[in-house]
Amino acid sequence: MAEQVLHANLAAGRWHTLTLDEQLGNIGSDVGRAIRAKAQSDDVRLQGALERALELLDLTLTDERWRGPRLREIARAREVVCDFLVGDNNYESNGESLDAYFFAYALAARRDR
Hints:
Layout: H1 8-11, H2 20-39, H3 43-61, H4 69-86, H5 95-111
């Protein structure tokens, strides 16, 4: 069975026209939604927001512009998000630190407009 694409317009190529700041800032919106859902023990909202965030992270990982150290950072960010939201939290992250990480990119994207 084919996997459902949640961000069809972005997956069709538009995502790769955004800057890294824009990509990670947008991902942060869904990560923030997932964090709030987790805090409220709302597993349905958590699952939906996490799926959207992971789809966008995966699209970012396929962006050829981010090869090298940036790619490793994006992959690690994906790992930390999963670890905190649905894993054992081995990285000892918290919602505030994840929000702050992605919010910095959203601010940078807005500043660069």
